[in-house]
Design a protein that fits this description.
It holds the Pfam family Methyltransf_11. By secondary structure, this protein is of the alpha/beta class. The chain is built from nine helices and seven strands. Bound molecules: S-adenosylmethionine. S-adenosylmethionine binds next to helix 1.
Length: 265
Amino acid sequence: MSNHAEHNARVWDQLARRGAPLTRPATEADLRNPLRAVDPQGWLGDSIAGWRVLCLAAGGGRQSVLFAAAGAEVTVLDVSPEMLAHDRRAAAERGLAVRVVEGTMEDLSAFATGGFDLVAQPVSTCYVPDVVRVYRQVARVVRPGGLYLSQHKSPVSQQATDQPAAGGYTVAEPYYREGPLPAAAPGRLREAGTLEYLHRWEQLIGGMCLAGFAIEGLVEPLHAQPDAAPGEFAHRGQFIAPYVRVKARRADSESPRSKPTILSV
Ligand SMILES: C[S@@+](CC[C@H](N)C(=O)[O-])C[C@H]1O[C@@H](n2cnc3c(N)ncnc32)[C@H](O)[C@@H]1O
């Protein structure tokens, strides 16, 4: 396994042992309507009963349990054994079946070609340097015509300071850069100790098209509050959308497209 994956596995193990916010399982409130909790946009329609779903880099017992509660046949892959322990525990507590696989999102060779109807990935591509490599793996394991729902940190959010100066936030990191981002203060934007990478739009969205997906939806979930105090997450959210959520569909043909295809919105 790559050095960055091993490093991030160790850090997420520690975060999971500490019960950090993004390592917590699904709540009772989430479970009242599990499908809406994992798909607030309604991109998956009214039912996913019987769908074969891969929760990619999604350990912690939230996504896996919610998809299983919505009736899907769930596999969860994560690099952190401690995050996966949360999935095992949370599924057992609810009497749900979840298959748990330890590994990196950069190598999905453990899975059959076209074996999933849906791959669902919460924010996690920031932990690998080459996002297109991940997309190519996903394109192989999702069936032609199947869906890939993913969420990513926006490039400008990875570039900008977390605290304001002169009323605004500074774009402090170059857009064209190599290697991990400098260490940042822990908070809602970054987890302490992880290695994170910035991905440009041409990689995040163009890369999906190159891997054989057509984009069917794109939203920037709102994290802005007009009355938030300077420096708060929701104040920064007035200036910068921290995340982007993408609905992509695997092309029907087996061969990836050679040129990006972007459907107009
Ligand atoms: C923000 S958490 C996502 C799951 C969380 N349940 C949530 O609600 O957002 C990011 C996850 O990515 C995982 N991760 C980091 N690098 C990875 C890699 N190379 N391959 C697979 N998983 C990885 C971490 O272990 C962590 O569980």
